[in-house]
Structures are given as C-alpha cells and as structure tokens.
Prior knowledge:
Blueprint: H1 10-13, H2 26-37, E1 44-48, H3 55-69, E2 89-93, H4 100-110, E3 120-125, H5 132-143, E4 149-155, H6 163-166, E5 170-173, H7 179-192, E6 196-197, H8 199-209, H9 213-226, E7 231-232, H10 234-241, H11 246-257, H12 261-273, H13 278-294, H14 311-321, H15 323-339, H16 346-358, H17 360-381
Parallel strand pairs: 1-4, 1-5, 2-3, 3-4, 6-7
Amino acid sequence: MENKESFVVSARKYRPASFDMVVGQSHITTTLENAIKNNQLAQAFLFCGPRGVGKTTCARILAKVINESADAPASTNMFGEAAPVAMNIFELDAASNNSVDDIRNLIDQVRYPPQTGKYKVYIIDEVHMLTQAAFNAFLKTLEEPPKYAIFILATTEKHKVLPTILSRCQIFDFNRIQISDMADHLAEIAVKENIKAERGALHLIAQKADGALRDALSLFDLIVTFSKDRSIAYKSTLDNLHILDYDYYFKIVENLLSADVPKILNILDEIIKKGFDGHNFIAGLSEHFRNLIVSSDTSTIGLLEVPESIHQNYKDQAKSAGLAFLLSSLNATHQCELKYKSSKNTRLHIELCLIKLSQAKHAIKLSDQIKTLEEELKKKVNP
Length: 383
C-alpha cells in the first residue's frame, strides 16, 4: 500500500515561524523586533484583539526569538515548524486552567531560574478567563517578577482583564487583518500547494473570514476539499460559502434607478428561493450602498474592500446614481435592517423598503425642481 503523507491543515502548516511571516500586524512585529534589538524588553506583555489575527503566534515567535538571542537551543516539531514550547517556554491555556491552583503551580515554576538561556517565558492564552481569585494570586508575581521571567498574556476581551493587571503590562492591540492582505497570503499558499485559484474567489474567502486569518485558511482548505481538480473557482466558492454574488446588488440598484418595481420584486424572490436570509440580504445591500458612496470619490476609493476587477462597476453605478440617492438609500436600508427582527412579516418589510427606494430618484428630482422654483420666485419678489 502506498504510504501517503498525513494531511496538515493550512492554519498549522503555514503558521508563521518568524516576525516577517506574520500577516497584517507590522505595527506590532516591528516594535517587538526593535525592543529585542535594543534590549528594551518589558517583563509583561498583553496581546489583545479579535480571534485568528496572530496573538498566540506572535507570542510564540517572541518567546522563541528571546531564547535564540540568549543562545538557547532551538527545536522543531513533527511538521518542521519552530516548536511552540522549548525548555524555558511555558504555555497555559486559561480557558481550561483558570483556577487559583493553576496559577500557584505557575508561580512555583517562576521561582526557579532557567536551566539554559537567559529567560523563562510564560504564555497565558485567553487570560481574561482567569477567576478573580486567580488574578489576585497572579498579581504579586506580575508586579515584581524575577529578572529572568517574561510574561506574555493574550486575550480577545481586554475589558475583562483587571485594571491592576493591565497597568503592569505593555499592551499591543492587534488589528483585524485586511481583506487584501489575506487574499495575497492565500494566493501565495495556492502557488506553494500547486492550486489554481481565481483572485475573486480568494477575495470572497478573505471577506467571509471577517478579519481572522485562521478562519480564512480553514475556508481555503474547505473549498479545495470540495473541488475535484484542486482548484478554487469564483462560482464554486460562492455556492460553497453561500455568499450572494455582487451582481444581484448591482441589478437591484439598476432597477431601483429605473423604478422597475416588478423586476425588483422578482430579483428578491429569486434570492430568497436560493435560500438566502432576508436579513443578510438587506445588510448586504446596505454594504453595497456604502461601497458605492466610497467609490464615488478618488480620495475614498481605497476604502473599497472588493475585488479590483469590479472597482469600475462600482464607479460607474455610483456616477449614474448620484450621491443624494445613495445617501438616502443607505439610510433607508440601515433602518430596514434595524427593524427587521421586530417585523412580523419580514419579506413584506424588505419589499416595502425596496418599493420606497424605487421612488427615491423621482422624489429627489422633484425636490430639486421645487427648490429651483422657490429660488426663481425669490428673485422675482426681491429683484
């Protein structure tokens, strides 16, 4: 029987092993590298931010680099990656080890200096999960740690960490990773894995991941698994991730501008029959109006988080719609979204919003005509 290599998920296989491999957090990695280079390391760090953006990864890289700079032996795991836990690096998952006893065991370890290297590094993940008593037990050690101990705390909920803990840490806020950065990273992995991937499909995956690179890599693996020929196509990605194509929103707005109510209602019916939730649709339409507004000016075009292949489509539709219509429509769809859950007939709620919007262009035009007449009357009365 042929011996095949076991499958390793991309989130593990391509976990960054050095600061230069970290995606979308250059403001943090540069600061940490400078601190190490200038020998200005704090004794306690707090890495906070959304899930899947690289907090634990950066903590492990920092711990590794600190040890390497102190001439500690490096090690690798079974996948050839840098080992997350070396002789003087310790990890505690506070989500499942959050009691006073767990922290006391950690404090007992801190008392002994490292056998090799200069530092012992303690990584506490999901630190906000520690109990009040555990926080209190940890506070004294964090306040006056031995010179050889460095603590790296990571959390998704900074507001749940005690202020007394926060005041003793150097705080780093991790950003949600930009869609373009994620799409670029996925494209690099596709090349390495010999996977044919359409740029638009990778952009959809990045968009669906909502700023979390780990989620994007999981979705990437999922789409490749669905594919028979190890390719990632735009159409199959839309179907597998159950995402509504941009074309539907362009069609809706096009028919709103022409006030073609029957076509609008038929497009909505088609969307609902495909299994898309009405709430998600109206939220997506609000996002579409927002994208049209930012694409109408060259100074804000950079805020458009859609594939470059459809940038021109947004520019063209924004020009034909006009800013007054777009602002009015964005406000109407936002209100529709807010009141959606309290509506007893959600479909009718959306249909009514769309019918009103189909008359918005005419109402704006009429309003402009009235203003013009008023100005002309004023001139005649007060020449």
